[in-house]
C-alpha cells in the first residue's frame, strides 16, 4: 500500500544518484563445483551483495551449452519470477532466495546435467555481476564380472594366451580396470603381459568398460589366483571393487616320473595280486604312459598295472615311461619288486619210516624260502616238537602214527607249507581192551570186534574154546588192523581173538553168556488169611507201602522195574499175612509172609524180556500158575497191572483198618498192643520202608533196590 507513495521518492533518488554520477556496487560469490550422485537433488548457491537491496535486484540462472552459448533457465525480478519453458530443467528446478543467498535446486540429476551454471545479479542501475559453478554428477558402476578361459593353456605356447576377461557396466565417470595375479598388479609387458580395454557409452550417457588379459603362462601359474579391480570416483572420494577370483588350467611337461607298489602293502608273497601305480609331476594332455616289466617285457599303456597270482619270476624292475606326443619328449622312472616265496616242505625220510620198538626215531623237515622260517611238528593235531628235526629217543607203539610238519614264515601271515610222515614202530601186536571180556546177550547171533595195533599189520584169527576156527572180515587201520566176526550161539561159549605178526602175538578172551527170553502171562499168588490183622497203607508220590503185622508173617515180594517183575514168596507158620507193597516210578515191591498156609515159596524174576523162576513148596493146597512163555511182553500192560495192585491194596487197607480197630479193643488174641511204623529215606533213591513185628521186635530197613540196611545207617 505504501509502494505508490514511495515510488516517486525512489525515482527521484535514482535520478539524483545519476545526476551526481554515483553507481551501485554488486558482488557475486559461488563455489567452483558442486558434486552429487545421480538421482539426487543438486543445490547450487549464489551469494551476492548490492547497495540497492533486494527491492531493485534481478536474479537470473543460465547453463552453458556445448557451443559455449548461454541458456537461461530461471528469471527472478522484483515483481515476477518463473522458470524458463522448454529447457532441460523446466520441471526440475526451483529457486530459494534468503537474504543475500540465492539457491538453485535441481531435482533428479543425471549424468547429462554435468554442466556449468551461471548466476547473474542485476540492479536498477546498469550495474550487474555473475558467478559460475560446475555441476558434477557421479554414478557407481555395477559389480565387475570375470570369466576365465575354459580350455587349458600350455606352457609351451610361444605367444601370450588369453587368461580371462573382466567387465563393468553403467558407471560415471568412466571406471578403470586393473588386473592382479596373486595380489600383484599386472602391467603391460611386451611379449609377456597384454591388457586391452574397450569402453562403451550407453544411451543413458553411462560408461561400460571391458578388459581382457593375455599373458605367457608358466608352470607356477597352475596355482595362481587371478582377479580384476575396478576403480571409480564418487563425490569427495575414490572407490575400488574386486571381482571374484579365478584359476586357470596350465599344461606342463613333467620333470620326473614315479612308480610304486599300490598293493599289497609291505612284503609281497607268491600268490598275491600285485598292483603298480605310475604318476608324474606334469599334466600334459597329449601324452602316453607305459608300465613295463623289464625281465619279461610285459607292459601296459596305463598308469596302473595289475598282476594276479604272482610268482617269484614276476619280481624285478618295473619301468614307467611318459611320452609327450606333440614334441615326442620322453621321461621315465623305475622301481624294484621282490616276490617272497616258500617252497613245499620236504621230509626226510620221505612219506614213511619204520623203526624197531625201543630204537631212536629221527626225521627232518625243510622248506626253501626267501625269508626266515619256523618249523613245528604235530601228531593228531597236537604239537609234539619244534624245529626242523623230529627226534624220539626210544620209540614205542604209541610213537607210531601220522606226523605233520608245518613250516611258516613269521614275517608274513598266511605264508606256510606242510608235509606228512607216517611213522611205523615194529613190534608185537597189542589188542585194545582188557585181556578177558564178558559178554551177555539175549540174541542167538553175536557180533564181536577185535582191534589190534602193531607193525607190520597183524593178522587176526578167531577160535572158540572147542578149537573151532571162525571166519571173519579183517580191515587194515592207520595203526594196525580190525576184525569183526559174526556167529550163532546156542549156549555159553568162549571165543578167542588172536593177533599176530612177525614180532609176536596177543590173545584176548571173550566169555559169552546167553540169557533165555521169556514173557510173563499170568501170576497168581494169594496168601490165606485166617486171623485178624492190622495193616497200614501209605501212598507218597509214586510209592505205596502196605504193611500188615501179625505174630508170624508170610512175605511175598513183587518187583516191576521197567520190563522187570520180581515175585518172591517164602512160607512160615502164620495165619495172617503181612504185606508190604512199594511203588517207585514203575517199580512194585510186594512182600508177604504167611504161617500154616499152603502157599509155595516162589521166586520169579523178569529182567527186560526175561523170566527167571524159583519155586519151593512146603504144602501144596493153594495153586500157583507158573509163567508161560509168550512171544513179546508189552510195556502197555504195566499200567493195568499197577491199577489192579492199587485197588487190591486199597481193599486190604480197609480190611487192615478194621482188624487193627478190633485188635486195639482186645478182641483179637485177648490183648491190645501197638506196632510202630516209620518210613525213612535211603541214600540211593530217598525212599526207605521200615517194618516191625510184635514177635521179633526187629526193624528192617529196605531201600528201593531191596537192600537191607542197619539201623545205624539211617
Blueprint (SSEs and pairs):
Layout: H1 3-19, E1 26-30, E2 33-37, E3 42-50, E4 58-64, E5 70-76, E6 81-83, E7 93-98, E8 101-106, E9 116-122, E10 128-138, E11 145-148, E12 153-154, E13 161-171, E14 176-181, E15 184-185, E16 193-201, E17 207-215, E18 226-234, E19 237-242, E20 250-251, E21 257-263, E22 268-269, E23 274-280, E24 287-293, E25 299-300, E26 304-307, E27 316-324, E28 329-337, E29 339-340, E30 346-348, E31 352-356, E32 361-366, E33 374-379, E34 382-386, E35 389-392, E36 401-408, E37 416-431, E38 436-441, E39 445-455, E40 459-464, E41 469-470, E42 472-477, E43 480-488, E44 493-501, E45 504-514, E46 536-540, E47 543-547, E48 555-561, E49 564-571, E50 578-584, E51 587-594, E52 601-607, E53 610-616, H2 637-664, E54 678-680, E55 688-691, E56 700-702, E57 708-709
Parallel strand pairs: 2-10, 12-20, 22-29, 31-37, 38-45, 49-51
Antiparallel strand pairs: 1-3, 3-8, 4-5, 4-9, 5-6, 7-8, 9-10, 11-13, 13-17, 14-15, 14-18, 16-17, 18-19, 21-23, 23-26, 24-25, 24-27, 27-28, 30-32, 32-35, 33-34, 33-36, 36-37, 37-39, 39-43, 40-41, 40-44, 42-43, 44-45, 46-47, 48-49, 49-52, 50-51, 52-53, 54-55, 55-56, 56-57
Please provide a brief summary of the model.
Helices cover 6% and strands 50% of the residues. By secondary structure, the protein is mainly beta.
What does this structure look like?
By secondary structure, the protein is mainly beta. 6% of the residues lie in helices and 50% in strands. The protein has two helices and 57 strands. Strands 31, 33, 34, 36, 37, 39, 42 and 43 form an eight-stranded mixed β-sheet that branches. A six-stranded mixed β-sheet has the order 2-10-9-4-5-6, with no helix packed on it. A hairpin with a 5-residue loop joins strand 9 and strand 10. The longest helix is centred in the C-terminal third of the chain and has 28 residues. The chain starts with a helix and ends in a 5-residue tail after the last strand. 28% of the residues are buried. The N terminus and C terminus are likely disordered.
Amino acid at each position: 500500500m505504501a509502494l505508490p507513495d514511495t515510488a516517486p521518492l525512489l525515482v527521484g533518488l535514482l535520478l539524483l544518484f545519476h545526476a551526481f554520477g554515483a553507481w551501485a556496487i554488486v558482488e557475486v560469490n559461488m563455489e567452483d563445483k558442486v558434486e552429487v550422485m545421480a538421482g539426487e537433488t543438486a543445490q547450487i548457491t549464489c551469494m551476492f551483495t548490492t547497495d540497492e537491496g533486494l527491492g531493485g535486484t534481478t536474479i537470473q540462472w543460465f547453463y552453458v551449452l556445448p557451443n559455449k552459448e548461454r541458456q537461461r533457465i530461471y528469471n527472478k525480478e522484483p515483481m515476477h519470477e518463473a522458470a524458463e519453458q522448454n529447457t532441460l530443467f523446466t520441471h526440475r528446478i526451483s529457486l530459494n532466495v534468503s537474504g543475500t543467498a540465492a539457491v538453485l535446486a535441481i531435482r533428479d540429476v543425471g549424468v547429462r546435467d554435468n554442466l556449468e551454471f551461471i548466476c547473474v545479479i542485476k540492479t536498477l542501475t546498469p550495474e550487474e555481476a555473475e558467478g559460475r559453478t560446475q555441476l558434477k554428477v557421479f554414478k557407481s558402476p555395477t559389480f565387475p564380472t570375470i570369466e576365465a578361459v575354459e580350455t587349458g593353456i600350455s606352457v609351451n605356447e610361444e605367444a601370450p594366451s588369453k587368461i580371462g576377461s573382466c567387465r563393468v557396466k553403467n558407471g560415471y565417470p568412466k571406471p578403470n580396470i586393473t588386473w592382479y595375479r596373486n595380489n600383484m598388479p599386472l602391467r603391460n609387458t611386451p611379449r609377456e603381459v597384454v591388457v586391452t580395454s574397450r569402453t562403451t557409452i550407453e544411451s543413458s550417457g553411462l560408461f561400460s568398460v571391458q578388459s581382457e588379459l593375455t599373458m605367457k603362462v608358466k608352470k607356477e601359474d597352475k596355482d595362481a589366483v587371478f582377479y580384476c579391480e575396478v576403480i571409480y570416483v564418487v563425490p569427495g572420494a575414490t572407490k575400488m571393487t574386486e571381482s571374484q577370483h579365478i584359476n586357470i588350467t596350465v599344461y606342463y611337461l613333467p620333470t620326473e616320473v614315479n612308480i610304486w607298489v599300490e598293493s599289497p602293502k609291505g612284503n609281497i608273497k607268491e600268490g598275491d595280486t600285485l598292483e603298480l601305480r605310475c604318476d608324474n609331476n606334469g599334466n600334459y594332455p597329449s601324452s602316453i604312459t607305459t608300465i613295463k616289466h623289464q625281465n619279461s617285457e610285459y607292459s601296459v599303456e596305463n598308469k596302473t598295472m595289475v598282476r594276479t597270482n604272482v610268482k617269484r619270476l614276476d619280481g624285478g624292475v618295473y619301468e614307467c615311461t611318459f611320452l609327450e606326443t606333440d614334441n615326442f619328449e620322453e621321461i621315465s622312472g623305475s622301481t624294484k619288486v621282490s616276490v617272497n616265496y616258500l617252497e613245499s616242505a620236504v621230509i626226510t625220510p620221505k612219506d614213511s619210516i619204520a623203526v624197531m620198538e625201543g630204537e631212536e626215531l629221527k626225521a627232518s623237515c625243510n622248506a626253501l624260502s626267501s625269508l626266515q622260517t619256523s618249523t613245528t611238528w604235530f601228531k593228531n593235531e597236537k604239537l609234539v616238537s619244534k624245529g626242523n628235526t623230529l627226534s624220539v629217543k626210544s620209540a614205542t607203539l604209541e610213537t607210531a602214527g601220522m606226523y605233520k610238519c608245518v613250516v611258516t614264515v613269521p614275517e608274513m601271515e598266511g605264508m606256510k607249507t606242510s608235509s606228512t610222515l607216517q611213522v611205523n614202530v615194529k613190534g608185537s601186536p597189542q589188542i585194545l581192551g582188557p585181556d578177558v571180556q564178558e559178554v551177555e546177550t539175549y540174541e542167538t547171533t553175536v557180533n564181536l570186534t577185535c582191534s589190534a595195533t602193531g607193525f607190520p599189520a597183524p593178522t587176526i584169527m578167531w577160535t572158540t574154546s572147542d578149537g573151532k576156527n571162525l571166519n571173519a572180515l579183517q580191515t587194515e587201520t592207520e595203526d594196525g588192523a580190525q576184525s569183526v566176526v559174526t556167529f550163532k550161539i546156542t549156549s555159553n561159549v568162549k571165543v578167542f581173538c588172536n593177533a599176530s605178526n612177525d614180532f609176536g602175538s596177543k590173545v584176548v578172551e571173550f566169555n559169552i553168556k546167553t540169557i533165555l527170553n521169556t514173557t510173563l502171562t499170568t501170576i497168581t499168588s494169594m496168601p490165606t488169611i485166617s486171623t485178624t490183622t492190622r495193616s497200614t497203607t501209605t501212598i507218597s508220590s509214586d510209592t505205596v507201602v502196605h504193611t500188615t503185622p501179625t505174630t508170624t508173617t508170610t512175605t511175598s515180594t513183587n518187583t516191576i522195574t521197567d520190563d522187570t517183575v520180581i515175585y518172591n514168596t517164602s512160607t512160615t507158620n502164620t495165619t495172617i499175612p503181612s504185606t508190604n507193597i512199594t511203588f517207585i516210578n514203575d517199580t512194585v515191591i510186594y512182600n508177604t509172609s504167611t504161617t500154616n498156609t499152603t502157599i509155595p515159596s516162589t521166586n520169579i524174576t523178569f529182567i527186560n524180556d526175561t523170566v527167571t523162576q524159583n519155586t519151593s513148596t512146603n504144602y501144596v493146597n493153594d495153586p500157583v500158575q507158573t509163567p508161560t512163555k509168550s512171544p513179546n511182553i508189552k510195556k502197555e500192560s504195566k499200567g493195568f497191572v499197577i491199577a489192579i495192585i492199587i485197588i487190591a491194596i486199597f481193599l486190604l487197607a480197609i480190611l487192615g483198618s478194621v482188624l487193627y480197630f478190633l485188635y486195639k479193643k482186645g478182641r483179637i488174641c485177648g490183648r491190645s498192643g501197638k506196632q510202630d511204623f516209620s518210613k525213612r529215606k535211603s541214600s540211593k533213591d530217598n525212599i526207605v520202608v521200615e517194618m516191625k513185628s510184635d514177635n521179633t521186635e526187629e526193624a528192617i530197613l529196605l531201600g528201593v533196590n531191596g537192600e537191607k540196611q542197619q539201623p545205624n545207617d539211617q
